[in-house]
């Protein structure tokens, strides 16, 4: 999983434009270690108070770090995204899935609740009724159903997933860095702000964007019918 330190580094790196998340091997992320749950070991060890702090100081730092990251984030779901793995995918702005991926909000199957923000994230991606269905049953859905429900934006053959995800990342990265970061922040803030408040924030961000060198270059390139050359200023 992406670390808070990585997110902080990328946030400070003005040249970074897109983050692509994918899994190593055959799974995107298979969720918590059930053997550790049984033995009350690893991150599941300790008293209820210690376990609470383990969540707060551990896995719960990831959704907040990704939420605060101004870069667009793409999840290339290369295989099972189960429990915390599904929630990790929902932390991304865009999800592309291989045709052999499966998804489950499966916490209830092991007698626990979504501990990493899934109860906030999943309803915002697919709506409360479908999120409730997944969370209450713990059932698994395939890539086709995930596409139908809007959980993923695209399903591609497994062999093409990396290429398609990187191609999308390059299309996004071809745009001005400041505009990308400000746009992502507006989309995030718009999830919990009133319209009038968002319009006020949009006006402030727009004023900043109009005074960037990349905006001037974008306009000149458009009028001169040539590719733009940005310097992230």
Write the layout of secondary structure elements.
Layout: H1 4-12, E1 19-22, H2 34-39, H3 48-57, H4 61-68, E2 73-77, E3 81-82, H5 84-91, E4 94-98, E5 102-104, H6 118-126, H7 128-137, E6 140-142, H8 143-148, E7 154-156, H9 161-173, H10 177-189, H11 195-210, H12 213-224
Helix pairs in contact: 1-4, 5-6, 6-7, 10-11
Overview of the structural elements:
The chain is of the alpha/beta class and 233 residues long. 52% of the residues lie in helices and 11% in strands. It is built from twelve helices and seven strands. It has a four-stranded parallel sheet, sandwiched between helices. A three-stranded mixed sheet has the order 3-5-6. The longest helix is centred in the C-terminal third of the chain and has 16 residues, at 195-210. The relative contact order is 0.12.
Order of helices and strands: HEHHHEEHEEHHEHEHHHH
Could you name the ranges where pLDDT drops below 50 across 5 or more consecutive residues? none
Quick check: average pLDDT? 91
Biggest beta-sheet profile: 4 strands, parallel
Structural class: alpha/beta
């Amino acid at each position: 999983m992406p670390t808070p330190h990585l997110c902080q580094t990328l946030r400070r790196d003005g040249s970074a434009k897109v983050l692509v998340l994918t899994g190593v091997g055959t799974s995107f992320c298979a969720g918590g270690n059930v053997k550790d749950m049984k033995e009350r070991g690893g991150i599941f060890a300790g008293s209820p108070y210690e376990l609470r702090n383990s969540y707060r100081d551990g896995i719960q730092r990831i959704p907040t770090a990704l939420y605060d990251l101004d870069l667009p984030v793409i999840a290339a779901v290369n295989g099972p995204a189960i429990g915390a793995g599904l929630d990790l995918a929902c932390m991304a702005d865009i999800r592309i899935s291989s045709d052999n991926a499966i998804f489950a909000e499966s916490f209830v199957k092991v007698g626990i609740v979504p501990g990493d923000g899934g109860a906030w994230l999943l309803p915002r991606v697919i709506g409360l009724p479908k999120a409730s269905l997944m969370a209450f049953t713990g059932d698994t859905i395939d890539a086709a159903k995930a596409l139908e429900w809007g959980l993923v934006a695209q399903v591609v053959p497994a062999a093409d997933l990396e290429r398609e995800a990187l191609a999308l990342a390059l299309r996004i990265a071809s745009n001005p860095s400041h505009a990308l970061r400000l746009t992502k922040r507006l989309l995030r803030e718009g999830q919990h702000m009133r319209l009038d408040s968002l319009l006020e924030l949009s006006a402030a961000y727009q004023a900043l964007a109009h005074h960037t060198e990349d905006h001037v270059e974008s306009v000149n390139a458009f009028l001169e019918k040539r590719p733009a050359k940005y310097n992230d200023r």
